[in-house]
Amino acid sequence: MTLPRIVATDLDGTLLTTAGTVSPRTSQALRTARAAGAEIVFVTARPPRGVLRVVGEDDGSGIAICSNGAIVYDLTTDEITASHPMDPETAAKVAEALARTLPGVGLAVETGRNVLAEAAYTRRVARDLAFYHEVDSVFDSDQPIVKLLAMSSEHTADEMYTVVSEAVGDLAEVTFSGVEGLLEISAAGVTKALTLDVLCRERGIGPDEVVAFGDMPNDVAVLLYAGAGYAMANAHPMVTAATEHRTLSNDEDGVAVVLERLFGP
Hints:
The chain is α/β, with parallel strands linked by helices and 265 residues long. The chain has 2 domains: 6-83 and 191-263, Rossmann fold (3-Layer(aba) Sandwich), CATH 3.40.50; 88-187, 2-Layer Sandwich (Hypothetical Protein, Haloacid Dehalogenase-like Hydrolase, Chain: A, domain 2), CATH 3.30.1240. The protein is 31% helix and 22% strand. The chain has helices at residues 11-15, 24-35, 49-52, 88-101, 157-168, 192-203, 220-225, 237-242, 254-263; strands at 6-9, 39-43, 63-66, 71-74, 79-83, 106-110, 115-117, 132-134, 147-151, 172-175, 182-187, 210-214, 228-231, 245-246. α4 crosses α5. The longest helix is centred in the middle third of the chain and has 14 residues, at 88-101. The two termini are 17 Å apart. 47% of the residues are buried. One of its GO terms (molecular function) is phosphatase activity. It comes from Nonomuraea solani.
């Protein structure tokens, strides 16, 4: 491929170590890529609030594609510059399909800034407790449905994905990113790849000028979009089956290894 103008990288399980940090080697590799003229774009399932706190001062400028493509977030200004929420009526139909296929499933909604959680949705992220709001129904609010979250303690995410994808069909995008028993559902057509493509077109950049990194099924679309999409050594089998390129694991600085080769002396 040509020298990349965009480095699109997932965070958890990819750029970040298991401890949830950016290693010194990876931080230096990002700076080297930027110095060579590449733009770093974080492409993540995380909401905006979960991005800035895990990238250091040197790494935390620029654009993040959050919530699996549903949000574009400017890290420098702390602004959401674009959003692609689900239509409430469609989300309600998806919820009906979830109830049929996964009785007892717990629902929550990521709004972009907060989480609306029903009683059956018992997952809580310690660092996000201040952002959770308990609701009788996620559909009682007029806040945007950036991402519908479905949790089951009785099934794995892989099991849920198989049955829910079939039940939902083309109503919405169904995926998962590593949390056991949790599905993430976005508006139809909304993926990391779709939003990255819009960003690239705005800059006059083609897919062949993009290098991407990921480890989970929600990364597959963006890895296939990029001129070179790298699956981490710790990637989900669905990712390795879909991609040609490989790198080392997140704890072995797999992203840095590739960036050093591409942008190093």
